[in-house]
Amino acid sequence: MQVNTLILGAGAAGMMCAAQAGAGTLIVDHARAPGEKIRISGGGRCNFTNMHAGPENFLSGNPHFCKSALSRYTQWDFIDLVARHGIAYHEKTLGQLFCDGKSGQIIALLRAEMARAGADLWLQTALAELTHDGSRFIATLDREGQRTTVTACHLVVATGGKSIPKMGATGLAYDIAAQFGHGLRETRPALVPLTFSDQRFAGLSGVSAPARVSNARTAFDESVLFTHRGLSGPAILQISSYWREGEDIVINLDPGGDLFETLRAQRQQEGRRKLTTELARHLPARLVDHLAPDLLPNGNLADQSDAALAEMVRNLRAWRLRPTGSEGYRTAEVTLGGIDTAGLNSQSMMSQTLPNLFFIGEAVDVTGWLGGYNFQWAWSSGWAAGQAIKTAPTA
User: Fold this and answer.
1) Are the C-beta atoms of 193 and 244 separated by less than 8 Å?
2) How far is residue 171's CA from residue 329's CA, in Å, rounded to a whole number?
3) Element (H, E) at 239
4) pLDDT band at residue 395, thresholds of 50, 70 and 90?
5) What's the start-to-end Cα distance of the chain, in Å?
6) Residue 291: closest CA among 213, 228, 203
7) Among 125, 149, 122, 154, residue whose Cα is nearest residue 137
8) Which end of the chain has fewer beta carbons closer than 10 Å to its terminal beta carbon, N or C?
9) Considering only CA atoms, which of 71, 339, 305, 46 is closest in space to residue 184?
């Protein structure tokens, strides 16, 4: 079987590329259904992009690499596509856009765009062998108990990273990259809960609080969630992409910066109230109980001088912790690192060493923040590769 374009991986990036690449496109995936990460994302409502998406929201060995694709296919382009398909959506917080209905609507949108473009989709299809004969790619595929050989002018690798292996994630993209001479930047779990070997927060499991979480590199203002194994919640997932083993994180439990003045005012009105009781009006009571032995003074509000209150607030603003590790790829939303962008053309996502070979989406060393940014990279990189293929001279 001969095709113009073979796309490996029917996730967000692969399907977007298939919708753009033009006639003679075949997209294959080993899963039973396309877009599985889309389906489970955003609690089943798919946080499909972010209104504030820009290059500054992405990590990469080359922070400039993502600029071209993101500027040529923007969040507003995808939002327009969503609107044209009649999908209702809303902003949840911080520019994050979610479907009002189910995430399956985004998968249906992509499948409709693929059908309109004439792309074929083969599911439950595994790659057995891949070679290049000097002019074309030759893929040996196992499908429905039969082995099929597909020859393609263009090959697009959109098989993602290592995150969520229970959904079939593998390092296939990295193996293909290495086969064709591409470098790989260190990969690690990102947007992932952090863990503590002593399970010190087990008694706080389920408690959340607004906070600023920082390290030497950056800071994020969102909520922190305490778990049996450690820390999660948006602020922790964000900082995890910037954290390395052996490093501290700092949690500021007074992100609004008004706790000291509030406690001073309450001291005049409710001086006989226990300090911990008053503090539980501003922080979860179970968290106050956990902090009391190490960070909080004893006694009533009236017993606390300005200096004592100020010291306590300073401690709450600089709660320093050293995680042992993370929950790993099992729960990581994305993979940090990946195929080195030095070997790719930033406009087309095509290999600099082998013409008509493309790498897109999570497989590439471009990793977004939490909040729809990684989907936007999938749309933008998939679109860029698809457009390059569609406008390429006919072989």
Assistant:
1) no
2) 12
3) helix 234-240
4) low
5) 16
6) 203
7) 154
8) C
9) 339
